[in-house]
Amino acid sequence: MTTDAVTHEVISDVQAFRALEPEWSALWHKAKGEHFQTFAYCHGSHGSLDATVDGRKLQCVVGRRQGRLVALWPLVMYRNSPVLRSASISPIRIGDWRATGCARARAGPPGQ
What we know:
Elements lengths: L5 E6 L2 H6 L1 H11 L7 H7 L11 E9 L2 E13 L2 E6 L7 H11 L6
Helix pairs in contact: 2-4
């Protein structure tokens, strides 16, 4: 593995999610992100993160390069009949992945 490799983890703990706020905000500013990508917006959109509202469970995918936050995808998991589904925390449905990917792409290569 090279030193430029991105490592991923899934955060489902509410306290760990809230602890991302400073890094998330820094990445959002660097990427010139959209308003629906801010920590405050996503945190507020999920509702009460402390409870599994309607059976939803926090699943925030975090990417780090050399320990630094370089990508994230805030999701919730929920059951719809026998099917387990995931959805973006943000209410935006079409283009969720592309919008998140754009924030990462705008951040530029490592070291910029």
